[in-house]
Amino acid sequence: MRTRILIGVATATLAMFLWPPIPQAPDYHVMADQRTCLGMANCLNVLSNLPFAIVGILGLIATFARRRSHEPALERSERLPYATLFAGVIATAVGSSYYHLAPDNARLVWDRLPMTLGFMGLLTAVIAERVDPQAGRRLFWPLIALGAASVLYWYWSELRGSGDLRLYVIVQFGSLIVVTLILATFESRYTDNPYLIAGLVAYGAAKLFELADRPIFALGGIVSGHTLKHLAAAAAIAFIARMLHVR
Question: What would the pLDDT profile of 22-59 be if each residue is shown by its tens digit?
């Protein structure tokens, strides 16, 4: 089964690079809700990043919590990946707020870069928990480097006038697909799997909200799909933080 997963991941990655370059959509930075409030441009898209900071802090607390016996609640191979995930979420709150104040490609780097820390941190944690702790330790830094490289490559390609999101797409969606495959294939020594599954479902909902940014805002002009995306993605992290808390 492990071999099948590796073959599937390798095949999907190869297929992505055989696909033509994926450019950044020209209207990507034009959000549906551009209202100003409290003297802040794109107000709700900025303020909706606050939950990321809150759940990120709660996640870090859960990551380094100790049992009543004063022993760490998490194994050493799990603490660093989860700490990276939640630190990346806190950094996303800052980077995404900075981006939404004046959206452009240069600022988008600081939104996407910490997000890749979260994706790679979660992937490494799941590998350490379910596949092999030693494999998780060995893959941690290479995966972190891959995540950062995916954003830097995209921005470099944009500066050259030939934007290419393929590597970033692999990092974001590929990591979540691998996590899902591992959940379906390998048993966990923990009983809190429903929280992780709920987190993945919430993140899937966040991507749907993002795609429906304008239609949702058009329903009544109250809130946009992009704002709801932030809230749903924060909820996804909250489920993972809760998962660690119950351990």
Answer: 899 889 999 999 999 989 999 999 999 999 999 999 99
User: For the residues 165-183, what does the mean pLDDT come to?
Assistant: 92
pTM over 0.85: yes
Residue 86 CA to residue 11 CA, distance in Å, equals 30
Residues with Cβ < 8 Å from 11, sequence gap 6 or more? none
Its CATH class, for the domain covering 41-246, is mainly alpha
Contact call for residues 77 and 137 (beta carbons, < 8 A): yes
Question: Taking a C-beta distance cutoff of 8 angstroms, is the pair 201, 19 a contact?
Answer: no
Average pLDDT over residues 109-123: 97
Q: 53, 92 in Cβ contact below 8 A?
A: no
Residue 42 φ/ψ, nearest 5 degrees: 50, 50
